[in-house]
Automatic annotation (TrEMBL):
Pfam annotation, one family: ABC2_membrane
This protein's GO CC annotations: ATP-binding cassette (ABC) transporter complex
Species this chain originates from: Heliobacterium mobile (Heliobacillus mobilis)
Keywords per UniProt: Cell membrane, Membrane, Transmembrane, Transmembrane helix, Transport
Membrane topology reported for the UniProt record: Multi-pass membrane protein
Matches recorded under PANTHER family: NODULATION PROTEIN J (PTHR43229:SF2)
Taxonomic lineage of the native organism: Bacteria, Bacillati, Bacillota, Clostridia, Eubacteriales
Name listed for the protein in its UniProt record: Transport permease protein
Transmembrane segments: 27-45, 65-88, 113-134, 146-164, 176-196, 237-259
Main location (coarse class): membrane
Highest taxon of the lineage: Bacteria
Family statement drawn from the similarity comment of this UniProt entry: Belongs to the ABC-2 integral membrane protein family.
Domain ABC transmembrane type-2: 25-262
NCBIfam families: drrB
Keyword match Transmembrane: yes
Amino acid sequence: MLESVLKTIYVIWYRELIRFFREKSQWAGMIMQPTLYLTFVGTGIASAMTFRQAPGGTPVDYMTFIYPGIIGMSVLFTSMFSGISIIWDREFGFLKEILVAPVPRWAISVGKALGIGTIVSFQGTILLILSPFAGLSLTLWTALKVLPICALVGFAIGLLGISIAGRMESMQGFQLISNFLTMPMFFLSGAMFPLHSAPQWLQVLMVIDPLTYGVDALRNAIYAGIPEAQAILQHSIAYDLSIVGLFSIVTAATGVTAFNRQG
C-alpha cells in the first residue's frame, strides 16, 4: 500500500514538472513578472525614498525591504494559479482516470502540490540569480536556505489553489476566485510596506495572512547575520515556518475534501 501511494505521488509530481517544462510561456511569465516589479516598482520607489522600519530604527533601503517580497509574490502567483491544472485534467478526462485508482485521494493532491513546490524552487533560483539587480550579493548558503522556504510556501499555497480548483466548474470561476484571494494576500503580506506603518485594522489582516510569514521567513534567510537589516524582520524563522507548516496542513485537508467531491 505504501509503495503504491509513494508511486502515485511521484508520478503526479513528475507529470507536473513535465507539463511545466513543456510550456515555454510559463517560463517567460515566471521571469518577466518579478523582473518588472524589481526594475520599475522597486527601483522607482527606492530612488525616491528611504524609510525606517520602526520609530527610531536604522534607515533601510527600500530595495532591501522589497526584494524578499518580490520572491514571495512570485511564489504566490505561480503556486496559486497552478491549481488550474485540476480543471484541465477534469476536462480532458485525466482526473477521472486517477480518481478511480486504488490509492488515497490525498496522495493525488500531495503529488500535485509537491510538483508546484518544486517549480517555485526553480523560480526562486532565477530570482536569486537576479539579486545583483537589487544591489545584493547572496551566497550559496543563502540560496540553500531560501529555496526550501520557497518550496514550502509553494506547497502550502499550491494546496490552496488545488482546493479551490477542485470546487470550480470552469476556468473562469477559478480565475475569479484566485484573483480575489491573491491580490489581498500579496498586499497584506508586508511585501510592499512594513506592518508597523499600516493602520491597526490593516495590521490585523496582515497578521492573519499566511503569506506574511512566508515573506518574513525569506527575509530571515536572506538577511541573516546582517545587523542593519534585522530591523525589517518581524519574527524568528522558526516561528514563520511553523505558521506556514500549519497553513499547509489546513490546505491539505481542504484539498483532500475537494478531491472527494469529484468521486
